[in-house]
UniProtKB/TrEMBL annotation:
SUPFAM superfamilies for the chain: Zn-dependent exopeptidases
Family per record: Belongs to the peptidase M14 family.
Domain Peptidase M14: 30-305
Coiled coil: none
The organism's place on the tree of life at top rank: Bacteria
Protein name: M14 family metallocarboxypeptidase
Signal peptide positions (record): none
Organism field: Novosphingobium decolorationis
Length: 305
């Protein structure tokens, strides 16, 4: 048992029920607007990419259209790659990095790869600057066809509808100070478990798939991103967020077992990026640029493999 103060919602040691979820939801006021920050940039790209509305979320009358952009009709002679951002809505550079990639670099891959980009998978959480969706569900542990999270079901269906094998999927995330200040304590409270504090790594890192390791692929991404921002070192125990560092800037999870977004395509090359926007030596622009560099390095490596 830790000596940290109990989370303000729920009873320590008891998983949340509907009352606690409702109490949590009541604390989640919108802090920014998907319809102002994200949707206009997506719609502005419709003259350069094929725009797809792949679902709608309706949370107590708040409706959010889910968008993806592709670089034209699928060419079966080309490999296919998926880029996702905003699975966790609070992870801003995941959304902004995906948009910046579309605006500045995606055209470089015309005729080389079928690109599919979903810039903001979780718009309700984007507005609340939260990790969970409306129902206090973490989308990045629930990517299945019958998921309890509508965000996940919609994206899984979009991928299935492509009817082509995927070569690559890169999922853009952040690790922030709020992970320790809010989200991990909330998770422990929701599940009726003890909260064990950890440290937040200062820098960029990747999460490889423990069941489909691609060390050279990850190395290529780390080398490219290191030109833009610093790479997170291991802590004194040799870990990053409690997981052993398996190579410079890389940890691994069994992505499919954990229901992670990066597992939904079954691609040969998959990874999750993690940028640290709260670093005193990083700016929002640098974080967005790191995401773009990671996407481009991932594509370049996969297309040359």
């Amino acid at each position: 048992m830790t000596d940290t103060a109990p989370y303000p919602i729920g009873t320590p040691g008891t998983p949340w029920g509907a009352r606690e979820v409702e109490a949590w939801r009541a604390t989640q006021a919108a802090q920014r607007r998907y319809g102002q920050d994200v949707e206009p940039r997506i719609l502005a790209l419709a003259d350069r990419f094929t725009l797809q509305e792949y679902g709608t979320l309706d949370y107590a009358g708040e409706r959010f259209t889910l968008y993806a952009l592709s670089n034209g009709p699928i060419d079966a002679s080309l490999p296919t790659a998926l880029v996702t951002g905003g699975v966790h809505g609070y992870e801003t550079s995941g959304v902004m990095g995906a948009l910046e990639f579309l605006e500045t670099r995606a055209a470089d891959y015309a005729g080389r790869v079928n690109l599919l980009v979903a810039p903001c998978v979780s718009p309700w959480a984007y507005e609340r600057v939260n990790r969970w969706n409306y129902d206090a569900i973490d989308p990045n542990r629930n990517f299945t066809a019958d998921s309890p999270a509508g965000e996940c079901r919609a994206l899984v269906a979009l991928v299935a509808a492509q009817e082509v094998p995927f070569l690559l999927h890169i999922d853009l995330h952040e690790t922030t100070d709020s992970d320790e200040e809010e989200f991990r304590p909330a998770l422990a409270a929701r599940d009726g478990q003890d909260y064990d504090p950890d440290t937040i790594p200062d820098g960029f890192y990747l999460v490889d798939d423990a069941d489909n390791r691609q060390p050279a692929f990850c190395e290529a991404i780390i080398e490219a991103v290191e030109k833009v921002t610093h790479i997170a070192p291991a802590d004194p125990q040799g870990n990053i967020i409690g997981s052993p560092v398996v190579q410079k800037g890389v940890i691994e999870y069994p992505q499919g077992k954990y229901g992670m977004c990066a597992a939904i395509t079954g691609a040969r090359f998959t990874t999750t990026t993690e940028v640290y926007p709260d670093s005193p030596s990083a700016t929002p622009e640098e974080c967005n640029a790191a995401q773009v560099a990671a996407v481009c390095a991932a594509l370049d490596y996969a297309l040359s493999a």
